[in-house]
Amino acid sequence: MEIRETASQHSMRSAFSRAVNDDLSGLSAAHGGIRRIVCECSRRMCTELLDVAAADYEAVRAHPTRLLVVPGHELADVQRVVSRTRFVAVVQEQQESFRMQSGATNRLHVDTGKRPRVLIVEDEPLICKLWAINLRSEGLAVLEAPDGLRGLARARSEQPDLVTTDVMLPGLDGFELAEALGQDENTCRIPLIFLSGRGEAAAAARAYGLGAVAYLSKSCDLRAAASLVAAVLGRFTRDEPELVA
What we know:
Helix content is 34%, strand content 20%. By secondary structure, the chain is of the alpha/beta class. It has a five-stranded parallel β-sheet with strand order 7-6-8-9-10, sandwiched between helices. Helix 6 links the parallel strand 9 (192-196) and strand 10 (214-217). Helix 3 crosses helix 7 (222-235) and helix 4 (148-158) packs parallel to helix 5 (174-183). It is elongated, with a radius of gyration of 19 Å.
């Protein structure tokens, strides 16, 4: 049976992507007058990147119902194309309910009370944001820590349902974080997945030796990786841990 999503659900995803880009704009300046952003379409789990002139980005942001998308990603029934080039399209959201405000109010707030929580330990802000987008698209709540020490502290205080970590981190590296989590009786049963730029077999072997349930490369399809995380959370219980083949 085909499941059709409502126009409001599409608008919510577009609004979230726009909010992410506004967050990212504060993390890195435009280079050569060009800003790299995430496609703001409403397609589930879209993480395609766009290079947009900084002046064009600001001009679109002046309109609270306009979005920047990959050409072809617009929805004809709820979005009108305002302008289009080979690389980027500006669309007008037709839903009256779609409005984004500047500053702290332009974030979507999700009730995380009943959702599995994933702690991302990652020191690269862009990777962290993209990874979080994909995890949230699977219905997961996301916690973040920018280094190993704060990742360990947050794992102990927040007790997430799963932790993902890079290997190369300031403070504690990913391997040291895994060791510390495994030695603490309060965190030793939390599933751990490595998402790393180090693809050599020795690093993966060490991760599995420390109890990781998966070792993934940052160059992998993050959408598929997020689906794996959701699958692990669906199968993994604190009482009966199992490895992901």
